[in-house]
Amino acid sequence: MHFHDDSLFPENQEKLVIQAAPYGPEWLPGDADDLPLTMDEHVQAAVDCYNAGATVLHIHVRELDGKGSKRMSMFNELLGRLREAVPDMVLQIGGSISFAPEDEGSEAKWLSYDTRHLLADLTPAPDQVTIAINTSQMNIVEIMNDDDLEGTSIAKPEYYKAYRDMVVEAGPDFYLEHLKRLHANGIQPHFQLATLAQLETVERLIRSGVHTGPLILNYVAIGGGFAGRHPADLVEFVRRTPDGAVLTIESSMRAVAPMNAIGIALGVHVRVGNEDNLWRRKGERMTTVEQVEQMVQISEALGRDIATGAEAKKIYRLGEYYADADETLARLGMVPNRRPGQRGFMLRDS
Q1: DSSP letters along 162-217, please?
Q2: What is the pLDDT of residue 13?
Q3: Which domain holds residue 259?
Q4: How many domains does the chain have?
């Protein structure tokens, strides 16, 4: 992304889109006060987040026993109810479905490719499904400390080890087929990226015509194989992101607020929620709704407006598709592909 002298003026920035992730699939009931359990509670969590200022909802589903649901019927039911309860929210399904271990001592893992592909067939269809690119470690506890995990199930050695050893399986066999299915069903892929190598893979997918649509992505700074919390890495990722992309900052625990504050100041977007963070300051719990309200306060203090649901859908360019790689590159503000025999650095077409 290119920054002009006036790019930090809030009146020149897009209105802030706040993603809320209130369903915390890694936690068990009791780990946080605001974890929904019943279907009514799932819906109410969405309504509360929307009323607080969030316009994108990151969705997981929990069974009544407290464990993450893997039943597509549960996702269908929740999506149907959410379409009525929060019609202006962007509904984004978490592509892992549920990575939590089934029992103490069992693995924390993402489901098989075939199962994750079923998210493209949900009815009603979500607006987005998040998609990981390239297989990598996802050790979510690597940069958490004892204070972060105090009083939670992950503090138990069995669960801690399960999350320490978790891997995201997302090789080419997965993402090529998944993108094909999402595109075919009119669902926008929301890329979850942590490294420049992953961003470069997505650029190759665009340049080869595999992905022909808006580039919507999260920078995921949770450590353990994903990005860490160094602000220079965040700024470099922002700098390398195409001008026409929509970028959201995602971090973990008490780093969420300061990382997001940088993102708000830079003019990109933010994600909060109990899936990412449980704390306001050391030892003080914070609900998802309170985290949304905090982002509203920070943004308003800087003079940056908050997007409405309709504005968030417009910023995300929901429903837009492009004819080919050339149009996609142009719409994203990227230089065109090199033509045979063409020398020198590429310039944008006049």
Answers
A1: HHHT-EE---HHHHHHHHHHHHHTTPEEEEEE-SHHHHHHHHHHHHTTS--S--EE
A2: 98
A3: 15-331
A4: 1
Classify residue 343: in a domain, yes or no: no
The span from the CA of 100 to the CA of 108, in Å, is: 5
- Give one word for 199, left, alpha or beta, with left for phi > 0 and alpha for psi -120 to 50: alpha
pLDDT of residue 103: 74
Write down the pTM of the prediction.
0.95
Residues in the chain: 350
Q: Exposed/middle/buried for 89, CB within 10 Å: 0-12, 13-18, 19+?
A: buried
Please report the pLDDT score of residue 222 as a whole number: 97
- C-alpha to C-alpha distance for 142 and 214, rounded to whole angstroms: 32
What's the pLDDT at 223? Answer: 97
The C-alpha atoms of residue 57 and residue 59 are separated, in whole angstroms, by 6
Weakly modelled stretches of the chain, pLDDT under 50: none
285: left (phi over 0), alpha (psi -120 to 50) or beta: beta
| Cβ-contact 20, 49 below 8 angstroms | yes
Query: How many whole angstroms separate alpha carbon 116 and alpha carbon 118?
Result: 5
Whether 20 contacts 306, CB under 8 Å: no
Q: What is the DSSP string of 299-346?
A: HHHHTPPBPPHHHHHHHHTTT---SSHHHHHHHTTPPPPPPTT--S--
In a domain, 255, yes or no: yes
Confidence at residue 164, expressed as pLDDT on a 0 to 100 scale: 96
CATH number, residue 19: 3.20.20.70
Q: Which two tokens stand for residue 64?
A: 């009544």
DSSP state letters, 46-102: HHHHHHHT--EEEE--B-TTSSBP--HHHHHHHHHHHHHH-TTSEEEE-TTS--S-S
Strand-pair partners of 59? 93
